[in-house]
Amino acid sequence: QVQLVESGGGLVQAGGSLRLSCAASARIFSMYQMGWFRQNAGKQREWVATVNSGGNINYVNSVKGRFTISRDNAKNTVYLQMDSLKPEDTAVYYCSAHHSLYGTDYWGQGTQVTVSS
User: Parallel, antiparallel, or unpaired: how do β-strands 91-99 and 77-82 relate?
Assistant: First the structure.
């Protein structure tokens, strides 16, 4: 069982920054692939970024150079630093945890990010 709690969302003007945090309850946090997804109204949930247990990082093209995912295994926390925000980044952002050996996926409740123009 993994419980995820996101925080850090809010309203920001275009060009601004936000830092999202996701605190996980996983006993062996370091074994999980952690990621961020987002979903806007009427849209499918979109993958944004992941960092796996080995530290390998990937981003969707639309956020490369602007977003940074990181993890602190000692704190059981994954972060998403979002810079140069654009109105199209507006969405509910969800934290995810995946363990391929267990075949399990966990999701947080989401945090709203709204970027005004």
Answer: unpaired
